Amino acid sequence: DIVMTQSPDSLAVSLGERATINCKSSQSVLYSSNNKNYLAWYQHKPGQPPKLLIHWASTRQSGVPDRFSGSGSGTDFTLTISSLQAEDVAVYYCQQYYSTPYSFGQGTKLEIK
Amino acid sequence: QLQLQESGPGLVKPSETLSLTCTVSGGSISSSNYYWGWIRQPPGTGLEWIGSIYYSGNTYYNPSLKSRVTIFVDTSKNQFSLKLSSVTAADTAVYYCARHLKDSGDFNWFDPWGQGTLVTVSS
């Protein structure tokens, strides 16, 4: 099974500043035949369902603000919020869909400093 | 706009069977390339994929839960359901249903998700 580990567990960032969340997989999620990383990022606000932000490690889902970006390849990935807004307070999860069982990171709680 | 809504008892006794249904609206559960999944989140912990089903009835389960899980679909009602047997306190969680994209033979991400429903296992 692929284990997803996020860092940090929690993060406090000032409004307008950059927030960076890391995700590491226990084995590569890069599929060599199509050169795609099978990794997604979700935003989870209290009382709401998780929302897909990014798939294929760096492709923003339709309607997601461009301050959200994903990067990385193989086993190391990053979600970056370029200029933190108040509405970005949430828990963020990475998820691998390279192999079953599909697994999530433990989550990173993002707060305003 | 596709929407999913979970329903079912919020309290289940230990050793009994947890049963939940997800109703899909704004689209057909019989759409090609889409499976329909269940994911749960125990209090204070992360998300765990339980399993996914195609409208034809084809299923994939998390091996950690496979012996206790059954997922089935009712296309006439545009619903799919989860049964988890022999529950314990460790099965207390918010249970989500979600659409699970399967494209070119590969499973992808979950989108959208239902609101989630809290199921507590307690006597």
Mean pLDDT of chain B: 95
Q: How many individual helices of chain B?
A: 0
Percent of residues in β-strands of chain A: over 45%
Detail the poorly predicted runs of chain B.
Answer: none
The total beta strand count of chain A reads 13
**What portion of residues of chain B is helical?**
under 10%
**Strand content of the residues of chain B, in percent?**
over 45%
Approximate shape of chain B: globular
- The percentage helix of chain A is under 10%
Which structural category do the helix and sheet elements of chain B fall into? mainly beta
Q: Please give the number of β-strands of chain B.
A: 11
Topology diagram in text:
The complex is a heterodimer of chains A (113) and B (123).
Chain A: E1 4-7, E2 10-13, E3 19-25, E4 30-31, E5 36-37, E6 39-44, E7 51-55, E8 59-60, E9 68-73, E10 76-81, E11 90-96, E12 103-104, E13 108-112
Parallel strand pairs in A: 2-13
Antiparallel strand pairs in A: 1-3, 3-10, 4-5, 6-7, 6-11, 7-8, 9-10, 11-12, 11-13
Chain B: E1 3-7, E2 11-12, E3 18-25, E4 34-41, E5 48-53, E6 59-61, E7 69-74, E8 79-84, E9 93-103, E10 106-113, E11 117-121
Parallel strand pairs in B: 2-11
Antiparallel strand pairs in B: 1-3, 3-8, 4-5, 4-9, 5-6, 7-8, 9-10, 9-11
Characterization of this structure:
- The complex is a heterodimer of chains A (113) and B (123).
- Chain A is mainly β.
- Chain A has no helices and 13 strands.
- The termini of chain B are far apart.
- By secondary structure, chain B is mostly beta strands.
- In chain B, a hairpin with a 4-residue loop joins strand 7 and strand 8.
- Chain B has no helices and eleven strands.
- The chains are: A mainly beta (113), B mainly beta (123).
- At the A-B interface, strand 7 and strand 12 of A face strand 10 of B.
